[in-house]
Specification:
The chain is mainly α and about 140 residues long. It has 5 helices and no strands. Helix 1 packs across helix 2, helix 3 packs antiparallel against helix 4 and helix 4 runs antiparallel to helix 5.
Length: about 140
């Protein structure tokens, strides 16, 4: 249960970070913060924050599958990506980010998969570096 709560908290944190990062990008493309804020209501901003958190939870909670040691890493990635992408697509439809059509769904899914793959690659690198550091410390203690 503690692991699930940690994943939920991590998902909320990442969702908030993505929302704020997206705001900065939106500000830049809208011609500044004042121009952007004039185009969107406070309610829309709130809903966009909630949607960002839901999507992040769609990727963070399924990552609990990495705790299982009986599945291959590739299969774990496929499961995590499939669940996360499904959550993204459903949320995007509710948010009105996609016009109903197969082309927009495919493009959105590909963008989402690309971003998630980059995040997963970075996390994998971080964990690998941590494992190497731990292994080095274990070897040093064994040599003493």
């Amino acid at each position: 249960m503690k692991k699930v709560l940690k994943r939920i908290a991590f998902g909320i944190l990442i969702g908030c970070f993505i929302f704020v990062a997206r705001l900065f990008i939106d500000f830049a493309f809208a011609g500044g913060a004042n121009a952007y804020v004039g185009q969107i209501t406070g309610e829309e901003l709130l809903w966009n924050a909630i949607y960002s958190i839901i999507i992040a939870l769609g990727f963070s909670v399924p990552s609990l599958i990495y705790e299982e040691r009986n599945l291959s890493y590739g299969f774990e990635v496929i499961i995590t990506m499939a669940i996360g992408t499904l959550v993204f697509i459903i949320t995007a439809f509710f948010a009105g980010w996609f016009k109903i059509g197969i082309g927009s769904v495919v493009i959105g899914a590909l963008i989402n998969i690309g971003i998630a793959a980059i995040v997963l690659a970075i996390l994998r690198l971080v964990y690998k570096l941590q494992a190497n550091k731990i292994n080095r410390k274990i070897r040093e203690k064994q040599d003493d």
